[in-house]
Design brief:
Elements (H helix, E strand, L loop, with lengths): L6 E2 H15 L3 H6 L3 H9 L3 H14 L3 E5 L5 E5 L1 H14 L7 H12 L7 H26 L4
Antiparallel strand pairs: 1-3, 2-3
Length: about 150
Amino acid sequence: MLTSFSIEREVIIDIISDYIEAKQDNDFFNSTLEDEIWNESLQDSNTARDRASFVLRKLENHGWIIVETYSNYQQYINLNDYSIKILDTLDKVRKNYQAEYQGYVYATYTLLYSEEAKKKPQDILKLHFEDYKKEIIDRSYHRLKTSDNV
């Protein structure tokens, strides 16, 4: 059962155990998991479900997830804010994501070298101090005094 910001613990265990079972015959996966921590999980369990529970306990102990127990005694898993940011960054690295800056470069170039950018300093000051006051400040002040007034 999926809630707005969390997932039931049993659903997560099913997902992790399905992943472990699917990757069990993969030599690269098995050689990667020859870590002391993973070997620790082998001592306590033989099934993929037990290993998935072990993974969740390790993630909770190291602060990656928060396990909450609701009033119906169901446990739900939440990610910490920093976990979300780290996982998002790792996903961008995995997908070879590159930020698009070309739009900003073009917009900056256009603003600096267009015909409108060749105004004299007096025109710019007039725009800022006179036109901005008339168009923005006076309208906001009028609205504040009339409609937004308590």
